[in-house]
Write a structure and sequence with these properties.
The complex is a heterodimer of chains A (about 325) and B (about 525).
Chain A: H1 2-10, H2 22-44, H3 51-76, H4 84-97, H5 107-131, H6 136-155, H7 165-172, E1 174-175, E2 178-179, H8 180-198, H9 200-210, H10 212-217, H11 222-248, H12 259-269, H13 281-300, H14 305-326
Antiparallel strand pairs in A: 1-2
Helix pairs in contact in A: 2-13, 3-8, 3-11, 3-12, 3-13, 4-5, 4-6, 4-11, 5-6, 5-11, 7-11, 8-9, 9-11, 12-13, 13-14
Chain B: H1 12-15, E1 26-35, E2 38-48, E3 53-57, H2 64-71, E4 79-84, E5 87-88, H3 94-99, E6 102-105, H4 117-121, E7 128-129, E8 133-134, H5 136-150, H6 165-177, E9 183-187, H7 195-210, E10 214-218, H8 222-228, E11 231-236, E12 239-245, H9 251-259, E13 277-286, E14 290-298, E15 302-306, H10 313-320, E16 328-333, E17 336-337, H11 343-349, E18 351-354, H12 358-362, H13 369-374, H14 378-381, H15 389-402, H16 419-431, E19 437-441, H17 449-464, E20 468-473, H18 476-482, E21 485-490, E22 493-499, H19 505-512
Parallel strand pairs in B: 3-10, 3-11, 6-9, 9-10, 15-20, 15-21, 18-19, 19-20
Antiparallel strand pairs in B: 1-2, 1-4, 4-5, 7-8, 11-12, 13-14, 13-16, 16-17, 21-22
The chains are: A mainly alpha (about 325), B alpha/beta (about 525).
Amino acid sequence: MVANAISNVATGARSKSIAAVGPYLKSFSIVIVFVVISAFFAVANEYFMTWLNWVNLLRQSSINGVLAIGVTFVILTKGIDLSVGSVMALAGMIAASLVTSTNQHFVLWAIVAGLGTGAALGLLNGVIVTAFNVPPFVATLGMLSMARGLTLIFSDGRPVPNLSESFRWIGGGSVAGVPVPVLILFLVFAIGWVVLSYTTFGRYVYAVGGNDKAAKTSGISTRTVIASTYVISGLLAGLAGLVLTSRTTAALPQAGIGYELDAIAAVVIGGTSLAGGRGSLVGTLFGALIIGTINNGMDLMGVSSYYQQLLKGAIIVVAVMLDQFRK
Amino acid sequence: MLLSTGSNPEGHGKNAAPGPRDEPLLVADGIAKSFNGVPALRDGRLVLKRGTVHALCGGNGAGKSTFLNIVMGLLHRDEGSIRIDGMAVDFRSAADALRHGVTIITQELSPVPEMTVAENIYLGREPKIGGLVVDFPKMRQAAKRLLDDLEFDVPVGARMRDLSLAQIQLVEIAKALSHRADIVIMDEPTSAIGEHEVHILFNALKRIKARGSAIIYVSHKLTEIFEIADEYTVFRDGRFIESGAISSIDRNHLVTQIVGHEVKTVEKGKPNEGAPILLEVRSLSRGSHFKNISVTVAAGEVLGIYGLLGSGRTEFLETIYGIHAPTAGDVFLDGARVDPGNPKKCIQRGMAMVPEDRKDTGLVLCASIAHNIALSSLALRAVSGFVRRKAEAAATDRMMRLHRIKAASPNVPVETLSGGNQQKVVFARCLLTNPRLLICDEPTRGIDEGSKQEIYAFLREFAAKGNGVLVVSSEAPEILQISDRIAVFRQGRLDHVVDGHETTQQMLTDLAS
């Protein structure tokens, strides 16, 4: 019972008001929002509740989900990562260049190269933020542009098509009826959740975001912790880039534009505070699912993409307004 | 009980001189307030007379803050009545209270750093030309007159960010007083200012009451209460306990009323002759903060550091603990040099630090009690990076019982705790790393008398086990009560080290100024 309560607090879902039940309420409310939105679309469109559609919906949410999980680590430390959309494009481009019909390498090398690119750019973000005291907004805004520039230079502005079949499996394959991107999302979520809830590093992430001075006084190497969150975010952006490139069966230089905004939206809808120190991956996962559900449901209803943008923005703001109101 | 008439020469008698009317300025009666069914205040009462300073006393959780928030219109009372000048009032907001001549000065400073002193004082009510353009010359003049009247030495044209903490506090006080309020509520106004500023502030208070206003004064520093207050009211557990003239009681009586029982003051043991040196600081300097300080702490010893705000005492502690790197000199623990500028290594070597400002540097406020207590020692109990939850829960439980931290559960956020309990959480966190040297910077700031004595007893006990304690305090009685030896800091230099058993308060303050 007590251990249960502790583990729930450890997921980071904390509420200011009634502390003992707060964590439950908070994790719960995002689920309720998800259920209500799903119920609406289920009534509006009979195809929505089919197994096939849900597999599709989860696959559509997986890239944003993976990005959002990485960004959650950064936001928990009171930072922000605007560069994930561009980083995923560059990582995807570099990986793709190793598995084309004219330049065929073993698929593992492409994966390592993609993940390495993401992690390296994340490390650069982290170093710029911690060692040079550049505000995260500025550092990652710069990286957003730089990584995009590198992608365009590397590809000469042209797509890289004709990827090997084994590489295309990452985004297009499935295991026992479950698409690989969905498996990747749940694997990343599980690892991330364990790291945040059960490791000292996870605890330090919350502490640094809650009060970096107190964390430092408590003997935590705050810079290392903060820099590490940017590496995680970059690494997962690299992973998302692999999935995206594989699914589109070609690396596009303009891939992932604006993806950072959906990722941040998922984190915020999920209840993670931009002020740091509060939040959870459970919230982020449902945040990503909510955005995915809205996109999917409106597609089914045949809502024009112009109106989809408008509605999605409004729903994000209202979701966070409700959250504030509840506090 | 002896009447300590000498302690308050110009106290009650003189100021009882009636204002325009004989009736009290403010009468609050039977005030009650509950939060979620839990009563925070059951029976709050206060009778405030014109031209007096009225000390509102009570421990943490006594209901003082709730009571003041109700008087200020920030909270709405469940029961009771408030009359000002005989008229029943029911304020709906702080602005409403201000219109009726009630203003508050809190511990929380809220300056706009990029604006000047004058702009801060008249923020939102700037004098204007033609209702549009701010009349800066007029504003500066008004601000200057205000500050001169109060004898606050603060330049009106300076930007707030260039001022010292004490000056900022004085500006906030001036701002509140500029409203020409009849009733001024002061909640711990001296927590951030030095003795010199306290003196200036008290002179200002005397002028304010001379013009017929009244002040409700809240402070945990009893010395101040006996210096400035005319009357007192004690709350305990949300209830009115007693009130009267401060000249008719002594310090012990007040403490007993606040705590609810007699408080035994902690006795120091004899210093242990020939004990090994635990901490040795050799010629430590850090820029302009402090220069060439050498001092030792023996095993079993409490070394007090006394000095005014800005004497370099805090920077000195933080440098020993590795938060700052020294510009010269070394620190040795158990005879081995400590790597400079690395708190993590200092903790591993057996140091722990209770910082000055628990909200700013001591605690992760939004995190739970358990997580805060475990923060410094997580790595000690972790297995390849994984937190051992059972061991952690056991350690947290043990610490909460040992330090009598009162909370519904270890999982409530520390921001919901009282100041005294928060400070105990900081202590608990420090002790879980099994330190041999405990460094404390103002360990009893802003906490009540009962909790203070618990902390003194704890520090003595900790030292008696063969550990060392290095403690900074700006309260002379406190430093005298707990220290074996006292190092007196003045303008970044260590001038004297005196014996803690033979020194008097007067000697100490003379040495420091």
